[in-house]
Amino acid sequence: MSEQHLNDGGDENCDEQRPKHKLSDQKRVTDLQLATSPNNNTNNNTNYHLSIMHCVSSPPSSISFNRITHSLRPPKQITTIQCVATTNPPLTSSGGIGKSRADWQSSCAILASKVESQQQNTDKSTDADQITVVNGHTSLDLVPINKLPKPLTISDLSPSPSHGSTLRVAYQGVPGAYSEAAAGKAYPNCDAIPCDQFEVAFQAVELWIADRAVLPVENSLGGSIHRNYDLLLRHRLHIVGEVQLPVHHCLLALPGVRKEYLNRVISHPQALAQCELTLTKLGLNITREAVDDTAGAAEFVAANNLRDTAAIASARAAELYGLEILADGIQDDSSNVTRFVMLAREPIIPRVDIPFKTSIVFAHEQGTSVLFKVLSAFAFRNISLTKIESRPHRNRPIRLVGDENVGTAKHFEYLFYVDFDASMADVRAQNALAEVQEFTSFLRVLGSYPMDMTPWSPSQ
């Protein structure tokens, strides 16, 4: 396998995603004011390491700094940490920092700006910072909007020490989102951490702020969510589980508002498309406006007291934001299900005593016949493929093919994402992947994990 062909997908759009830092020739770089715990042992010289990745071919520089205890709520005591440039490669510590390519997000510049912003907010009420406990079943009391947890942003990502035993699950969206419900279904009574972007949820796990991330990958009506497949390749998290969540849309508005008063309806683009026929039947031939997520649409209506606007979201979002349900179950197709995968820093141990699914991604450079050979490796061993998805190779989108008869042709280079029903502990799967490796230029196992076998019916 030559995994270096893809560069983990991490070099693309690097000018937009990676901070550009250059270390001076002198050894000492800078002094940072970092928040530390009052009972922190200053004699502990255990080092953490951060890698500042550049969009160049030269090896990355490194910065090491003494152990700090850093949390989302910095304590009062401040100590000076001196950053020292090193030429050795980053070490992997038990705290997890310095383990992946995403650690550039925690460079000294980001940490310094984060600490400064946290110190400015230290005296604010901590009620708004509380993380919602999700169980997926019990109804929650109405919570004021200003006391709901705000989604994490990239500037919120900083090294965090190990926490208690409660599992923390990052998801994209705001409280009331379907991703939050999926997190509660997969991990009852978990601490759900809202993030403003899917990539921030990945980074929260990589930086030990969260233990898991929940990621929607496909919908029974809307198909695959291609952006998230790209993120699976770019980051080094492992799929450790899946959950299938029935999507139940509701039309929400402020109390006392009737359908005749509405001038527009807002929601996620897929939610609007999934409810188009029902909205027409309800006589709502009004403006449709797309926003980032369904629960965010409900929050927007409530926060701005919009009496001419309705939102398409879940019943839980209506309860959280104090909205009334004007119409329930407005999705055009009752068989509307979204599949989510659970991501972790480490893979789980595969088993053969329960149904397992394995997800892989591969690339080839020898034409379409190679794809047939790859699929045959599974067919000959009676392994069922449940999904195959092709995505253009973003680092090398075009391949030139010369032919003396027709000249030079341009073809797209593709990556193939495949799910198959077998565990990596199964000898058949091991032999199939060994054969696939012979025909591919790149192969990576995204995860081998238990299948979601929960019975489901449209009435749920």
Automatic annotation (TrEMBL):
Which stretches make up the Prephenate dehydratase domain? 168-345
Q: Where is the composition biased (Basic and acidic residues)?
A: 15-30
Q: Outline the extent of the ACT domain.
A: 359-450
Top-rank EC class of the record's enzyme: lyase
Q: Give one Pfam family.
A: PDT
**GO BP annotation list:** L-phenylalanine biosynthetic process
The secretion signal range is: none
Cross-referenced CDD domains, in alphabetical order? ACT_CM-PDT (cd04905), PBP2_Ct-PDT_like (cd13631)
Q: Which UniProt keywords apply?
A: Amino-acid biosynthesis, Aromatic amino acid biosynthesis, Chloroplast, Lyase, Phenylalanine biosynthesis, Plastid, Transit peptide
Record-linked PANTHER family = PREPHENATE DEHYDRATASE P PROTEIN, PREPHENATE DEHYDRATASE-RELATED
Q: What does this protein do?
A: Converts the prephenate produced from the shikimate-chorismate pathway into phenylalanine.
This one is known as Arogenate dehydratase
